[in-house]
Structures are given as structure tokens and as C-alpha cells.
Amino acid sequence: MKRLLSLFFFLALLSGAAVAATERSPDTLVQQVTDDVLNIVRQDKDIQSGDTKKAIALVDAKVLPYFDFQRMTALAVGRNWRKATPEQQKRLSEEFKKLLVRTYSNALTSYKDQTISYKPSRVEPGETDVVVKTEIVQPGSKPVQLNYALDKQADGWKVYDVMVAGVSLVTNYRSSFAQEVRDKGIDGLVTMLSERNKQLESGSK
Amino acid sequence: MRANLSRQLSASLCVGAIIAASGCATTTESDPADPFEGFNRAMFTVNEGLDKVAIKPIAQGYDAVTPLPVKVGVGNFFGNIWDSWTAINNLLQGKGGDALSDVGRVLVNSTIGIGGVFDVASEMGLTKHSEEFGQTLARWGVGDGPYFYWPLIGPRTTRDTFGWLVDTYYDPVWRVDKVPLRNSLVALRYIDLRASLLPSDKVVEEAAFDKYIYIRDAYLQHRRNEVFDGDPPRIPVNY
């Protein structure tokens, strides 16, 4: 009974979160999540001094719910995605998610004196696919564009691509993934990703 | 003697490039944008080696000993010099408004900003633009051409290589009369730029499976973004 109650409570929480997410426009969502994360990083000496593990935990908790990793993986894998079995797709998404979270977390640990400015973005009503533009402003050099592509899903807006200075962190993998599939098949790509993740996990502090 | 040496050097470079190119052709299916992948990979290896033993350690030293306000001042100083070239390129691309704003930036920063050390203009709302001759050529309809990876200067498409040559010809820093001063300025700017890229080293190192390809594809995406002033038409992606 107690279990059932807690499950119910959990579900209620989930749906509450989902409602909150649908109400937010994509640019508000990006801004709130970014502010939320950066406020924590600013106060966390460990993350600032390069503690990737701690940064990953932060990204897992705060950012992950708003990312659509299945779509990201499909974009990175490209044409071969359809050739993969559902099981392979699942494994690919899991491994690629780990890698992207790490990349994002590594970037967070190097966050120091920058500020983020939010570009005005107009979202037409009925629009289901938008790019939210932000800029990393750092003294002494040109601002760096940081854009997020989001699409509207049943449970709110989800990020499916992140572009730094015009470079998509997702599609930038296309040629190396395609190469791996050509050489060793989809299972080869799964292995390549999981081995990299294992290697990074054991190497990081 | 000197001519002889340089001829020998270029001959051996050629041979090296051919070996590298043919060596590569058997192992990978090359990207149409990168027909000289073998040569490029060889140069990439050279650069990575140089970076590891000399450039990166110097940049790290510079980064460690230089207080932030000084680094900001150095970045602003060279940025201000470049802004004049940005203005000319905006004009050549028919973007008169942007060119005017760039001229305004140079005027404000060179005076109130004390020789460009302070970027007062940005605070006044004159946005810094990013232009060079490669982008101007692109606007004039010149295509990318094959991709190259050069020693020291790194990735450039054929068009951007020509652009870079014109940039360097114009570059006020390269035109400084006193050679030792000129060399010091060029070196300082190079190290300052490298130092600003230090934080992304780990990101790229851990994200990339094949660093050469990761950097090449990122460069090509980035250039497309620059040519379209940060707002390229979105390519519909299918999967």
C-alpha cells in the first residue's frame, strides 16, 4: 500500500512537471534551465576546478529531462538509423546520451567569467520547431553563439540539437559514425561508443 | 645554397605528402570536401606535435601568469586593430550599416578605449562583427574548394586560404616596421588566441572519436555559419 502511494505520488510529481513544461515557451525554458544550472556552477568550487563527475550529476538532474536523446542520436547516426533494430537504437541512444552529457559537463567546468545573453526569439503560435538563440559573452573576445533547437512534444518542448558557434554537437558526429557503420556495422558503432564511455568514466576523477 | 635548401625541403615535403596521401587512400573513404585528406592528416599530426611540445605549454604559462584584466586588454587591443579590416570587408559585402558601426567601434575604442585596450563600443551597443576576406569572397559567390589543414594556421578551405593571405597582407600588425616589435606582437596575438582556446581542449579531446574529422567537420559548419552571419538557412536533416 505504502509502495502504491509512493508510486502514485511519484506519478503526480511527474505529471506536475510535465504540465509546468508545456506551459513554458521554449525561450523561457532555455533561460530558466540555463540560469538554474549556472547559479549552481557559480557557487560550486569543485565544478569550477574541473570535477566532471559532479558536473555530470548536475546536468543529469537539471538538464536531461529537457533533452530528446533519441532524436539526437537519430540525427547523429543519419541514414543508418532506420537500419538499426529497436534494441540497437536503444543502446545507441543510451551510449550517445552518456557521451553528450559528458561533453556538456566538461564545457560547464570551464565556465568562468562568461555571461549568457538571451537573444529575442519570436515563437509563432502553432510553431512546433524553433531555434532559441543565446550568446556566451566573454570579456576580451567575440561573443560565441550558443543555440538550441527544440521541438514541441506531448510533454513539452524538448531540445534536440545544440549548436556552438554554428557547430552542431550532434550532426558533427555524422561522418565518423557513418564511417564506423560502414566498417563495422551498427553493433560496431555501439561498441565504439560504449568503449569510449567506459574509458572516460574510469579516467575521470 | 639557400635556394637549394628550400628546393630540397619542398621536394621532401612533396614526397611526404604523396606518401601520406596514398597511404590514406587505402584505409578510408574520403569526404568529397576533403580530397587531400592524406596530406591534411600529415599536417594535422605535425601541428598536434608542435602544439603539444611548444605552443600549448607557452599558452598555459601565459594563461597562468597573466591576470584576467590584462588578457582582456590584449584581446581587445588586437580586436580593435582587426575591426578596421572588418569594416572594409563589411563594405565589400555591401553591408554599409555594419561597416559604419565597425568604423564607429574603431573610433570609440581607439580614443575613449585607450588605444583599443577597453572595448567601450560594445558597452555602447556597437556590436562586434566577425568578418575577414574569406567571408567576402564567399559573399561574392566563391565556393569553398577543397579543404586544407595547414601547419600553424590550421584548417582553411581553399577559398579561406586565399582569404587568409589577403588578410595577412592587409594586417596592420604584420606591417609594423620594427621587425622585433612586429614579431613580438604577432607571437603575443597567437599565444593569446591559443590561450583562449585552452578550455575547449578537454571538451574536444573527450568528445571526438577521430579528432581530425571532428575538427574538420566543425570548421566547415562554423565557416558556413560565419558566412551567413550566424543565421544560416537550416538544412533539413533526415534519418
Overall shape of chain A: globular
Strand content of chain B: under 5%
Any low-confidence stretches of chain B, pLDDT <50, length ≥5? 1-27
Strand composition percent of chain A = 15-25%
SS-based structural class of chain A? alpha+beta
Order the strands across the largest sheet of chain A as they lie in space: 1-2-3-4-5
What does this structure look like?
The complex is a heterodimer of chains A (205) and B (239). Chain A has a single domain (2-201), classed as Roll (Nuclear Transport Factor 2, Chain: A). Chain A is 58% helix and 17% strand. Chain A has 7 helices and 5 strands, in the order H-H-H-H-H-H-E-E-E-E-E-H. In chain A, strands 1-2-3-4-5 form a 5-stranded antiparallel beta sheet. In chain A, helix 4 crosses helix 6. By secondary structure, chain B is mainly alpha-helical. Chain B contains 10 helices and 2 strands; from the N terminus they run ααααααββαααα. Chain B has helices spanning 2-25, 37-65, 68-92, 96-111, 120-123, 133-139, 158-170, 179-196, 198-207, 211-227, and strands spanning 147-150, 154-157. In chain B, helix 1 packs across helix 2 and helix 6 (133-139) crosses helix 7 (158-170). Classes of the chains: A alpha+beta (205), B mainly alpha (239). Chain A binds chain B through residues 74-75, 77-79, 81-82, 99, 102-103, 106-107, 109-110, 112-113, 131, 139-143, 145, 163, 165-169, 171-176, 179-180, 182, 192, 196, 200, and chain B through 28-29, 31, 68, 71-76, 79, 119, 128, 130, 196, 199-200, 202-203, 206-210, 213-214, 217-218, 221-222, 224-226, 230, 232, 234, 237-239.
In short:
Chain A has helices at residues 2-23, 26-43, 45-48, 52-62, 69-77, 86-109, 174-203, and strands at 115-118, 129-137, 144-153, 156-164, 167-168. Chain A has 205 residues and is of the alpha+beta class.
